[in-house]
TrEMBL record:
GO biological process: galactose metabolic process
Keywords recorded for this protein, A-Z: ATP-binding, Nucleotide-binding
Keyword Magnesium set for record: no
GO cellular component labels: cytosol
Name used for this protein in its record: GHMP kinase N-terminal domain-containing protein
Superkingdom in the source lineage: Eukaryota
Family: Belongs to the GHMP kinase family. GalK subfamily.
Length: 235
């Protein structure tokens, strides 16, 4: 976990976690090169209201990653998909167990396009051009002035729900005797997929036979059947 001072300077922490996340992805030849920057001076400006739930923290992490890669002359070494995965894990070092939709949107976004983002079986972002109409469509984003500081409320709201889902996943796994798949994190470590989705896919494999792939093509009937199993096996 990256620690920082509270107050007006805490946004600088997102730059720090971006660097920490990228560090293991840069080869020694880049990190020790004579041309590497010894210091980086950064000026950040924006008009998004703080804690307004408009994905500003994800955008800050992604932008910081781009700045670091450019400064080290290593932009070509990390593709967009890897950068999204690194940004997702990096932001969690701040102390918020975020998902990955915001980071992926910041990296793969295309002007005048909607973006369909899928994480299974792998991260895939598909832009879809908005149809031209007359008069042109407009999206209105309104600030409700309700502040949502996830760094402060995370332990009792945001992170708590993540912990509850992991506990439910583990309880179902043991109750149903399921073996979960593992994945390689952005830092290169093997980690078990303790998620409701992984439990569902593992359970579905027991119904369909081994070798059932997660193609994101589950049916409503399958989901309803699993929901019934979960309700019967969770306290």
């Amino acid at each position: 976990l990256i620690h920082h001072d509270e107050g007006s300077q805490r946004w600088g922490n997102y730059f720090a976690v971006a660097w920490k996340g990228l560090h293991s992805h840069l080869p020694p030849s880049v990190l020790s090169a004579s041309t590497r920057p010894r210091t980086i001076s950064i000026l950040v400006d924006g008009s998004i209201p703080p804690e307004s739930s408009l994905s500003s923290s994800a955008a800050m992490t992604v932008c910081s990653s781009l700045v670091i890669l450019e400064a080290f002359g290593a932009r070509s070494l990390v593709d967009r998909t890897e950068m999204a995965e690194v940004a997702i894990e990096s932001e969690r070092l701040v102390g918020v167990n975020s998902g990955g939709m915001d980071q992926a949107a910041s990296i793969f976004g295309v002007p005048s396009h909607a973006l369909h983002i899928a994480f299974k079986p792998k991260l895939l972002a598909t832009p879809t051009a908005l149809p031209p109409i007359n008069p042109p469509m407009q999206f209105v984003i309104v600030n409700t002035l309700v502040v949502s500081d996830k760094k402060v409320t995370g332990p009792i709201h945001y992170n708590l729900r993540t912990a509850e889902l992991r506990m439910a996943s583990r309880a179902l796994q043991r109750r149903l005797g399921l073996k979960l798949p593992t994945h390689t994190t952005a830092s290169g470590q093997q980690e078990e997929d303790v998620t409701i989705r992984s439990i569902f896919r593992a359970w579905l494999a027991t119904q369909q036979g081994a070798g059932s792939e997660d193609k994101g093509d589950e049916t409503e009937e399958q989901l309803n059947a699993f929901a019934k199993v979960a309700a019967e096996n969770l306290p």
